[in-house]
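Case study 2.
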Amino acid sequence: MFFQKSFFKAFLIILLCDSILYFNIKESEKRGHDEIKHEKLDLSENKNDLDEIFQEPLIFIGGYVSSGTSLMRSILDVHPDVKCGPEIKIPNMFAQVEKLRENEIIKNATESAGLDDTILKRALGLYSYYIFLNNVDNAKRLCSKEPFNLNYIEFFKSVFPKSKFILIVRDGREAAFSVIKRWYGEKYEFENFLKFLSEWESWYEISYPQCVRTGRDYCKIVRYENLVRNPRETIKEIAHFLDLEWTDKFLKHYEFLDKDIKVSKNEPSLYGLKNEINTKSLGNWIGNIKNYDEKKIREKIKMLEFFGYL
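Prediction:
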């Protein structure tokens, strides 16, 4: 019984990826997405159209929560060629599929049916692409901003080989403090602080090696501190990396909310997006963590030293 239910669930996920893509890309074409080079899509007639999708130069932004990913995407959203849009939590679905695939019975059954890892990856890639496409208005380059993107750099690179990645890194102490403030109010106990710092470290222990293996031509590490202290210089480097022409709008993203920048009603960083780029978010954790233990931080959170924050 377990096998039947689990296999059926896995089958439905794969079928969903395929059917949603087929029927809804057709619908998106009717709504005008032909302006962004998708006019040739006809999945029932030409498999080459799928290959064209896989060759698109997508942009992925990732980083730990409260590390500046929302700021980064709002900056890029003002460029006429790029649209990221708000978070849509696609990587959360990937985790569920990965969990299913860990079951040997399901894995053997799907592979026996010819559904190997390559096919599943491409199906998930197409599913993601369709969601990206419908999360924004017409754009020459689609962009995805999700904190969890940082854990799937190599996955997306294998499916979309021309894609590029921006990995946002912020001092883990700043990020942990911001998360606690956002979700827990004024409860700045050290143990809670250390818990989120450990999570911050675990995320970058996964993502940093992926970024390095992907290569500097495709994955760029952006320090949040550099972005807010030297925005013009840092954004110029990012624009060059992404092959985007400079626009002064990059420095005035706050003027384009609900215009060029699509904002979700549940946008967690909306307050920050409404303001010009500034350094007010730096150093807020200092002196505000009850029973702060620097020695324990140095012993347990090695990535702080690795990134030069200690």
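The first strand starts at residue 59 and ends at 63.
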